[in-house]
Amino acid sequence: MDSVTQMVLGAAVAGFVAGRKCSPKILLAGAALGTLPDLDVMLSYGDPVSDMVKHRGFSHSLFVLLPFSLLLSWLWQKWRPTRFSFAHLWLLVAACLLTHPILDAFTAYGTQLFWPITTPIAISSVFIIDPFYTVPLLLMLIASLLWRDRMAKLCGAGLAVSSLYLVWSLVAVNVIEQRVEQQLEGTPMAGQPVFITPTPFNTVLWRIVVKGEDHYLEGLSSLVDSDTHIEFIEKPLGAWPEGIDSDYQQMLAHFTSGFMKYEQRQDELVVTDLRLGMADYMPFQFALASQDQSGNWSVIPPVRLESQSVRLKHIPTLWLRVLGNQDIDANLCHISECPSIGETARR
Asked: Transmembrane stretches, by residue range (predicted)?
């Protein structure tokens, strides 16, 4: 999740665990602890593919954060004695640290909760920025600063609301999963790998990717659609050239669970993570191979390519689709052809 969300989550967790000993300083400490695991973004692993697949790695591992929380609690109590017992202080620190990667695991990017086992956990039921999760926590934190005698209870209330929202997201993605399964039943794509993820800032409109042998299907489904039939668009997957091996291609295949496409652009082969982004807004694209004049492919050092920038005029169109307007296909059309809000209204 975004840094603001992790800060308010850490602060709320610290306030709730602190109980009657809660204070503004405890909330501030919780906010700092809540963002600590994301400091791994400052690390460079030498190439853009490694930077992607190793983010949310050791710094988000339960096996690392648990002993680290013990060390951090011991140092805190030694250098700045508090009113907390060591057990209470450790519980506070551990809770702030561990809730960070657990929340991240609900996103599509994935989190290596059990590093050094490098398989990412990606429940993919919330978008990386979701105000419906963050705002209740933020409001309760503000209220706790105004009514300090109720700090812990207000922080607990914020956590309860945000946790219920996560539960709701699991229910919502299950509804979409059932729709997809029913629609694909009896078709050649039945039983093929499916990836479902929420569109930006909500858990109502969902993007679906169904991966076949040489093509994939992409579609949208909103929980408020009057017609639950999903209009899929078929797109080519492409293929990695035979006869050459790339560690980077294998790293991406493992990280994405195979949800990636291959596309030749001039003399380069571009690999795109299909799970993250939508339409032409695909943020993780890498050039991994080049073709010579004889048509032979060779591996090159990975280069991350720039994605198209999000156009503000398309955001209202997306929200109309969230509300169930199935005449809009903001996810699957090409960006240059995607109608703006005014064009949609005239249709």
From this structure: 58-76, 88-109, 121-147, 154-176
